[in-house]
Amino acid sequence: MEFPSNLHPTLFMAGPLGMTDVPDLSFMCSWKDALTLPGPQNCKDRALPLAKDLLWEPSMPGPLPLLPPGPDPWDPGVTARDLLFRGGYHYRRRPQVVLDVTEQLSRFLWDHGDIAFAPLGKLMLENFKLEGGRNYSKKRTVVRVKRLLQDLGGYQPWGCPWAHVSHRLRRFSILGGPVLSRSVSLLLGKLLHEELALRWEQLLLDEAFTGGALAWLPSRTARTGQLVYPAGGALDRLYFQEVSLTSAGNPRVLKNPGHIQLRGPVRQVVTSTIQEETLLAVRSDYHCAMWKVGKPGEPAPLKVLQVEKGATGINLSPHLPGELAICSRSGAVCLWTPQDGLQLVYKDPETLAFRDPSPWRWADFTAHPRVLTVGDRTGVKMIDTQGPPGCGLLLFRCGAEASCQKGERVLLAQYLGQPDPVFPPTLHLICTQFSLYLVDERLPLVPVLKWDHGLPSAPLLARLLPPAGPSCPQPLLLGGQGGQLQLLHISGGGTSMPRLAGPPQTLPSVTDSLSTFPLLEPKHQQQLEERLQAPTIGLAAAPPWISTPILLLFQLSAAGDIFHQQLRLLPGAPLLDQTPPPSWTPQATAHCSRWLVDLLELPPSPTAWAAPTFSHRRLLGHMDLQKSEGELPQRLRVAMARGQLLRPGDLGTPPTAEPPPAPECAPQDELSERLSEAWEGRGATWWERQQGRASGSQTQAKRPKRRTQLSSTFSSLTSCLDLPDDNSPPPSPDQTSFKARLEPPGIPPSQESTQELWERGVRSERRQTLRDYMAKLPLQKDTPGPAATPPSQPSSNWVTSSQQQTPVPRGSQAPRKRQRMGF
Amino acid sequence: MGLDFSEELRKPVTEDEQMETSMLSAKGMHFPWLQKQLETVVTGGKKKKDFAQTTRTCLSFIQDALLKHQWQQAAEYMHSYLQTLEDWDSYKKQAAPEIIWKLGSEILFYHPKSNMETFNTFADRMKNIGVLNYLKISLQHALYLLHHGMLEEANRTLSQAETWRYGEKSSSQEILINLVQAYKGLLEYYAWSKKKMELSKIDEDDYAFTTKSRNMLSQSWKTSVNFCALIKTPGVWDLFVKSYVEMLEFYGDQDGAREVLTNYAYDEKFPSNPNAHIYLYNFLKREKAPRAKLISVLKILYDIVPSHTLMLEFHMLLRKSEKEEHHKLGLAVLFGVLDFAGCTKNITAWTYLAKYLKQILMVNHLSWVQEEWKSRKNWWPTFHFSHFWAKSDWKEDSDLACEKALVAGLLLGKGYRYFRYISKQDHEILRKKIKRMKKSVKKYSITNPVV
């Protein structure tokens, strides 16, 4: 193989991470990497000129769901809000995290008292007398339970200073106090803290899905393939979905997918096609399995391996059919081959470069079929499986050699060798939470390319795709767990170094698709948002065709949904910002609406626990004795006993029969008037009336005039300005604002005028910029925005609320104060 | 002493930070997305200043626009972002110029309406904001100018940077100055190289020749000073070393050139750079060094990159050597090349191997072959000699298929599928070759029972 004849000048400094005294000469700016040096000698080395306008343009503003949502409900799990202490946080440069153990502990004691106290109860069994009459026990340490419960009954001593304390209770508390107060909280607190810390770490980085659980298996016939992915509530069902691509590059789902039921959740799916034989391997928490995918699509199982300590990564050999590398949390790396079976290649519970207490291990192949890379959080090493155990060469080290930052760790290491190599098959991709490195195994420790990806979540997914054309650079896809996607263009190979062929780009993420869904009531809206925000656990792409450079990407979410998006390589015309952004097609919107209907029909996820029912049942039974009230309280009681939600209709009374207490207000106050109308559900009619009343003729006449003025001054900006009017409006947190939005003219007149006033002093081309900027900012007291909104403008309310939710470039309007709807 | 002192200074900070990071998680890992998570939770307490919030939002807007290739938009946000230079947080204030330079230069590099003048103005301004970035920015600015072919301007920028000093010279500053000097040297090398080309066209007896060559001499002396300092610092300096050696060789300083190359290849503080050994080998070859010397250089390259194209040359050298151990190594080298995924279709390597295997087996060195084959026999058959490869090799390159078939036959016997498939093929031109191949396999295959 050829080796690049001239490497980039690089400083090589051995040492720990975050060494400050070394100038960072790595290629931080993408443009720096694109530079070539002129000169009489190296003319032949001058690779392709820089493609400044290399851009894959998405055909739509966001990815679309490929399949209807699965039948199993999905629960997003814990969030940072559930785990962290919420108050007393002082801003520091380095944020400090405090786990909220006390709150969780008290909740746990309330919700799962049986678990928390039952063992203690058993321990103290001899101190209780559970049944029997009045016969007096001689032991002072025995408490009669019946009387104790009677004393406790009906009281909530928790936080109640007037709770009656009997001598029995006092005795009980003296008896149980030392045991109850200390051992429970100590033991439980410790365990809970451990669990919370684990959950928090998982929330920051869920390494289980490293590598991704979605794969694209190309078929023999062009433009068809199979998506292999797990779905179902527990991700324990492996689906084989056939997909064909239309001539326009859109995916069409063919028939019902076949599936294999597994016993554990699927964490990683890898495939490899060697010598026309396609293999598929799957990693679960404690098992790995391998199939051979035959022609009729019927996968034949080859091998199942059990990993006792838990598997962290697998990879299939790109050179030899059926060879599989497996890593275990114990620090062992094994190679399974059809000839020799399982072979321990490497074992070290310690990490490679420096001590880091992480059990995560990773292994992949290299250009030599018998040399593996073994990686952990601190570095990556090359291990000869046939050589003496334990020795090898460090390929990458988190340290000064690669100008790593403090706290930087390896999150993903991937061999980029491919059957049709454009690059020499010696390149490895290494991703950390800050940067992306390309390392050539012939030049260990010195990255040949470094780029700061700046992703706001862990980059655990990467795919190198074949080039779109003979002289085109190769697209490298990088996916964050939060759904963010980046596309890098890498060229090089032969005698030149791999380098960025143009500036990297971001691709739309699943949350960008929110705008195509119709606006929903808050609860459903939240459900939809949660579903779209589900972590991305798989990434696959149908490779571009030479004839039409179209790239089709698939993303798998933790909720089991697959989203797809199509990218088109723009012809090399100089790109300006004025090119219209892609917009939703009616078909896409309709498709999303259908998907949404299916989603909302799903049963809600079962709650983890139900409110304890012992007390109120007993209370109800007690109250049954006094049968003197009418029908209404009876129904109330029935509903309570069943735990039902009681609506006015259920009581058989018209909703207006008992109006809620309306706020007392002076009739002149417009805001209060509107609020009270809205309270009674007549907000819309009030608005209509108001419009008619407010000297209809004048305002109506002024509005079109102002419109034209605006559009003429902001000629280039209008398309963005009208956004909330003609597109689907941004989500709003409450229904009243939703109703208000449905009113025909979206903008109350005075708002336009204030906008106009405010923007007069700003250069027209910067206005849109400023507006976007302002929209993104959180509302604060002294925003340099418009002058104070007149108090008689109640409609500004909904603008505010929508601003908080989405950065729609609408409101340069910021109120002086956070206003509340009052209910 | 100075180093120790700086370590002392650093210590308390790291300890403090370790304590804090241990709060983040059990590991010492940093999460760039931690702040965002925290912000969703925290309600009370002192929050970030508005100023910090606006600047941060603006920064994320610029980054977003850059990644969407919206250069115009990014430029507009950049206007507002400049406020970060007035941050009263001294840490941020210090970091600001570097961020602005990175983002700004990127915008100006790609912006369709940007030109060289704008870039130069921006670079000149940025150099003087925050003294610590002067050298870095100058260097990148010079590279930008070089990229656009403005050699003179680049030289001027580098000369200015070279003489720049600020405070006590830190090691980081020194490295940067060395780099600046080296790039200056490179520019001088370009000029020298151009003159050399012109010179080669002039008659040697000419008066112009002597003056010109005298000029060149003085220039070379200057250049050597420029390169010297940098190439002693551990790193990858291919371009500089190559240029320097070329100049030294031109002036007949063979010893100097050899020393530079030897140092570049063998200094342990340097990364193991294959090019260092390749340069040294090429130099020694030009120098007509003895074969043993060449072999010793290539032996090291063989240890680092056994897949390199030079390995075939190495094999030939070893074959020509008198030592038996070299002959044995020659076989290992060929096997080594063919182990790699990128070399499986290298017909030269296969031809060499087929020929050499036959030759070795003829002189009864069966044990050599067996030694090499031992570690490969359980994977070479699938890797090289599968039925799939037999078919596809024959279709794509029948010459390659014949060479491979001979090797397969010698190593795996005549009954093996690859050999059988090829030997059954009927080909007009290759018929004779296949016949010869069959004969060799019958006679020398290592699977034959030992007589």
TrEMBL record, chain A:
Listed GO CC annotations: fibrillar center; nucleoplasm; RNA polymerase transcription factor SL1 complex
GO MF terms held by the record: RNA polymerase I core promoter sequence-specific DNA binding; RNA polymerase I general transcription initiation factor activity
Compositional bias ranges of the Polar residues kind: 692-701, 794-807
Domain TAF1C beta-propeller: 281-417
Stretches with biased composition (Low complexity): 709-722
Boundaries of every TAF1C helical bundle domain copy: 526-717
Biased amino acid composition, Basic and acidic residues: 671-680, 757-774
Domain TAF1C C-terminal intervals: 744-823
Residues covered by region (Disordered): 646-823
Superkingdom assignment: Eukaryota
Entry protein name: TATA-box binding protein associated factor, RNA polymerase I, C
Taxonomic lineage of the native organism: Eukaryota, Metazoa, Chordata, Craniata, Vertebrata
UniProtKB/TrEMBL annotation, chain B:
Gene Ontology BP, a term: transcription by RNA polymerase I
Cellular location(s): Nucleus, Nucleolus
Encoding gene (name): Taf1a
A Pfam family recorded for this sequence: TAF1_subA
Entry's transmembrane regions: none
InterPro entries attached to this UniProt entry: RNA_pol_I_TAF1A/TAFI48_chr, SL1/TIF-IB_Component, TAF1A
Predominant place of localization: nucleus
Protein function: Component of the transcription factor SL1/TIF-IB complex, which is involved in the assembly of the PIC (pre-initiation complex) during RNA polymerase I-dependent transcription. The rate of PIC formation probably is primarily dependent on the rate of association of SL1/TIF-IB with the rDNA promoter. SL1/TIF-IB is involved in stabilization of nucleolar transcription factor 1/UBTF on rDNA. Formation of SL1/TIF-IB excludes the association of TBP with TFIID subunits.
MF annotations from Gene Ontology: DNA binding
Organism listed in the record: Jaculus jaculus
Keyword Nucleus: yes
Highest taxon of the lineage: Eukaryota
PANTHER family per UniProt: TATA BOX-BINDING PROTEIN ASSOCIATED FACTOR RNA POLYMERASE I SUBUNIT A (PTHR32122), TATA BOX-BINDING PROTEIN-ASSOCIATED FACTOR RNA POLYMERASE I SUBUNIT A (PTHR32122:SF1)
GO CC terms, sorted: microtubule cytoskeleton; nucleoplasm; RNA polymerase transcription factor SL1 complex
Subunit comment: Component of the transcription factor SL1/TIF-IB complex, composed of TBP and at least TAF1A, TAF1B, TAF1C and TAF1D. In the complex interacts directly with TBP, TAF1A and TAF1B. Interaction of the SL1/TIF-IB subunits with TBP excludes interaction of TBP with the transcription factor IID (TFIID) subunits.
Keywords: DNA-binding, Nucleus, Transcription, Transcription regulation
Protein name: TATA box-binding protein-associated factor RNA polymerase I subunit A
